[in-house]
Amino acid sequence: MFTLLGTDPDSLARRGRLVTRHGTIETPIFMPVGTQGTVKSVSPDELTALHAQIILGNTYHLFIRPGMDVIRHFGGLHEFMQWNGPILTDSGGFQVFSLAKLRKITEEGVHFQSHLDGSPMFLGPREAMETQATLGSDICMLFDECPPYPCQREYAADSLARTLRWAAVCKEVPTPGLKFGIVQGSSFHDLRRESAEALVAIGFDGYAVGGVSVGEPEPEMMRAVEAAIPYLPADRPRYAMGLGTPPQMLEMIARGIDMFDCVLPTRIARNGTAFTATGTLNLKNAPFTFDKGPIEDGCTCPACRTFSRGYLRHLVKAEEILGLRLISLHNLHFYLHLMAQVRSHLEAGTFAGFRRQFVAAYKPSREPAP
Amino acid sequence: MFTLLGTDPDSLARRGRLVTRHGTIETPIFMPVGTQGTVKSVSPDELTALHAQIILGNTYHLFIRPGMDVIRHFGGLHEFMQWNGPILTDSGGFQVFSLAKLRKITEEGVHFQSHLDGSPMFLGPREAMETQATLGSDICMLFDECPPYPCQREYAADSLARTLRWAAVCKEVPTPGLKFGIVQGSSFHDLRRESAEALVAIGFDGYAVGGVSVGEPEPEMMRAVEAAIPYLPADRPRYAMGLGTPPQMLEMIARGIDMFDCVLPTRIARNGTAFTATGTLNLKNAPFTFDKGPIEDGCTCPACRTFSRGYLRHLVKAEEILGLRLISLHNLHFYLHLMAQVRSHLEAGTFAGFRRQFVAAYKPSREPAP
């Protein structure tokens, strides 16, 4: 399913290709997040025009609303939302532990209450995989516990042991799509290694590094990836879950990561903030009032081709939906185009210079990290 | 500027053509409302794809935000919002009287406080026309007072007298676009006649009926139009301001009205409500949960071509922006397509039957009238 097309001479970066039931993905790749069956404010046609190759759906949210009876009736998430490209779904584990209420963890899974109406629900490894099968996911993620940060070693070890037992259950549940394991182990490198080796022993189509971007300092996030990568096979794709900023993604790619997802492009757009190669711009700021230029010179996104910073500022200040729509399109274009640039530089053997220049030019954002 | 192409044998309905600086408008026509320099949630490209011929901008809102210094800097509203078709602007009078605070009416105009930050402002007939000139409006509306409903005769008469004195001032202020007078007179038919005759004596490029759809019963709304129409010249376009439902528009067309604007299509879309030929549908309702059909069979709008009622219901329930976007597109398409049907039937001499059938099939909405 995954073909390693080339490796960077200066880092662990890789250029790859992943074949799924709904199409082929060129890696490294960024996956726009469509939590509730839509990438926020963006239509499937617009995603296609942005050259999005794959999007992410959230099992927990779709399990709660509209529910699997609806998704089953419509023949899966692709049909329901009319997106015909690949979809990766998470397992719901992360949200069950972070969003839901009054949970009780047992060997079979997690009892929780819907964050919408408090109704009692249950997800375990079997249910999570069956749900992703119902969604028709092209890449199904294993059901895991993502421990909080910081975390005591004993809790992390117990949690990891259960997550690995769940991994064996997940392996047995048939799904139409690929299955990716998730390396956990919190900030304990030996647990990260144990997790990676155990998952590889079971054998999955790809491997994610989970439990990153959960509030830890950035160096620790990098070390978590570094602790897992050496124990993951070269011939499988690697996915860092739920991040990050543009420089973080470049640094992760240099450490051997192929796939990313992050809500940052659409989330900060709703606050009027746009990505550029030199950092983020908050378009609410007064200096943009009379600015006739685009968000970023030379950008070919639908916002920059037509609209000025001054107009976008007006839309954001007036809380007009068109403003967050246009900035969302720009930000998604920025992330997707950045990955296209990375792929080109990997093919040309010039990734090291691109990474160095990009990271040096990108000013630390005043926005919080994802 | 206006060419009367034909009249209906069975009613006062007319088929016409109005030439403006930014293009030609085929009447009867519906004008989507772009209050704050954007038709809510819709891009200019999407308006073009919907075959919108002209949109409306609100002088009061744009005067307050972003302000005329910004609009002047950008070279007008067309350039600012990147809509290259015709724009009609109201005068701000209606909003000054309905939205602003602590107003004081003098012979020169109205002192008011911005509804955004309370800052003191002034608009009079001269300032309203100059503001519309700065906006680059293709059709400028006269600055008038729209009396509340119900209204004492003495207040209505005094208000009308001042509005007519303001009309003479407005006539003298140069604007690049056409100028439309506004017939007032509340529910007093002799005042409506006086207003119409006085405006025609001054001479304008078109005439609106104002002070309708301000809370009065529907029969009274129709009578206000009927009271004005006989005194308006056949060779000028006629515009009923701020309405209405689809049957109301057909009834107004039969009474000789050529132009409409209304926030209803986009406003009720934000509540999940869609127009159909048999009345409105609230897509939040549970029966649509498993519905694979489009909002309306045979509809060619971007929502109906691709998406199901069940998916739209999910988006509305989940408060996803894509839901209100798609329903806004459908509702605007419905209004614009209805006017295209009216024009075809007027050309074919079959308007009477179309009107009768449409009004009979359209079930009274549970939505409040605009």
Characterise this structure.
The structure is a homodimer of 370-residue chains. Chain A starts with a strand and ends in a 9-residue tail after the last helix. The mean pLDDT of chain A is 96. The first copy, chain A, folds into 2 domains: 261 residues, Queuine tRNA-ribosyltransferase-like (TIM Barrel); 93 residues, no CATH class. Chain A is built from 15 helices and 17 strands. With 370 residues, chain A is of the alpha/beta class. In chain A, the strands form 4 sheets. Chain A has a 9-stranded parallel β-sheet with strand order 4-15-14-13-12-11-7-6-5. Chain A has a 3-stranded antiparallel β-sheet with strand order 1-2-3. The first copy, chain A, has a 3-stranded antiparallel β-sheet with strand order 8-9-10. The radius of gyration of chain A is 20 Å and the shape is globular. The relative contact order of chain A is 0.13. At the A-B interface, helix 3, helix 13 and helix 14 of A face helix 3, helix 13 and helix 14 of B.
